[in-house]
């Protein structure tokens, strides 16, 4: 298993995994991801914020990171945190606890980037996903109604989000 930055050659596969994730979301009757703009992914790749797990030279999982997320985290955005977004897993590799691998990677990544928190969100109150993220080491912070969603992907508009956090001070 190798964790590395995604590159421009991965864009087709990234969008394929987003479509697969959206199809999976449809089966769970939860909020669906919109179709993301290619420019967003290109920017994340250029800024080295789009990541992938490779298993046997195949993309098993992708995600993006950010160091700021004020519209979702409000005043807490002032905390030094890394924010994980849009985890999508290749169905061939489901059930291999790849989010736990991302969490272990994120702990080192956060420390290397002088961050004290690892944070994530998911739209809505998806109880099975909340339970899974708790098993991966996150604390469930709660459900928050978003106020200012201008510029956020459309699935955040008029939405409540579940917030998750790992406080690295608590893991020492």
UniProtKB/TrEMBL annotation:
* N-acetyltransferase domain boundaries: 1-159
Q: Which SUPFAM superfamilies match?
A: Acyl-CoA N-acyltransferases (Nat)
The superkingdom of the source organism is Bacteria
- Gene3D superfamilies, per the entry: 3.40.630.30
InterPro entries referenced in this protein's UniProt entry, alphabetically: Acyl_CoA_acyltransferase, GNAT_dom
Q: Which Pfam families does the record match to this protein? A: Acetyltransf_1 (PF00583)
Q: What is this protein called?
A: GNAT family acetyltransferase
From what organism does this protein derive? Answer: Chryseobacterium vrystaatense
Q: What is the lineage of its organism?
A: Bacteria, Pseudomonadati, Bacteroidota, Flavobacteriia, Flavobacteriales
């Amino acid at each position: 298993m190798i964790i590395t930055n995604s590159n421009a050659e991965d864009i087709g596969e990234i969008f394929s995994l987003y479509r697969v994730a959206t199809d999976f979301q449809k089966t769970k009757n939860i909020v669906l991801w919109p179709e993301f703009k290619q420019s967003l992914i290109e920017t994340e790749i250029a800024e080295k914020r789009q990541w992938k797990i490779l298993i046997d030279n195949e993309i098993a999982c992708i995600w993006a990171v950010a160091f700021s997320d004020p519209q979702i985290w409000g005043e807490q955005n002032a905390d030094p945190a890394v924010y994980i977004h849009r985890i999508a897993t290749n169905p061939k590799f489901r059930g291999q606890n790849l989010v736990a691998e991302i969490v272990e990677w994120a702990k080192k990544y956060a420390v290397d980037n002088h961050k004290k928190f690892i944070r994530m969100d998911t739209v809505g109150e998806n109880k099975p996903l909340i339970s899974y993220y708790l098993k991966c080491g996150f604390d469930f912070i709660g459900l928050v109604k978003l106020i200012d969603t201008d510029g956020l992907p459309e699935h955040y508009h008029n939405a409540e989000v579940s917030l998750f956090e790992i406080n690295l001070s608590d893991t020492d």
